[in-house]
Design goal:
mainly alpha; 0% strand; globular
Amino acid sequence: MAIDVFDPLFLAAASPAVLLAGVSKGGFGAGAGFAATPLLALVVDPALAVGMMLPLLMVMDATGLRAYWRRWNWPDARAMMIGCVPGIALGAAFFTVVPQDAIRLLIGGIALAFVAFQLARERGWDPTGGRASPVWRGVPWGAVAGFTSCVTHAGGPPAAVHLLGRRLDKSLYQATTVIVFWWINLVKVGPYWAVGLFDDGQLRAALWLAPVAVIGMLAGVWAHSRVDDRLFFALIRVFLTITGCKLIWDGATGLLA
């Protein structure tokens, strides 16, 4: 079913989802933008949601590159950019062999895993054991980020596991994620086109929502160094837990039907 950009239910989900993604990619509540895909997957098929979000993420990337230009750590960015390519190829193949209900199940599972990851970080979990990770580990983590980003636009947690281990400061970390995900999203265009993720009105819907994406991105850049994001993250965790459980239920019942 094609996206109807004038459907009130779609607009009620898409507008806050895109705004949330923009705010997160701008640097406020980094990683929380993944919540946009689960929210959209509640009202449209996951393939429609994923295809529509990619052009909007690319609009945000262009805005973010200007805000964080040349402030990234290039060795870390380069390692992840190399690693993401095979991960994206695997993710595109995934779309061609699994049903939509299985993708719902995966998105729901990743949503709950994201919540667990954030809670573990807050409680002092350190995947590196207190030592700075070597740069080369960005290649395999980039592959994981490429796969999860291709399937659900959820590359943030795998990227965070590596980049947080590199002991980057807040702004350097944010700038590095901006250039990495600019590249990941650019590479995804060809595979998405090849597997038909732009065939059902996704590009038209993205065009209508592009101003919302820019507003969200600029708001995130502004809030990055001015606003405490603890309450924001707490609300996102509650939302993702509920949404993740709903998607797992819908996916599992659909597969078993």
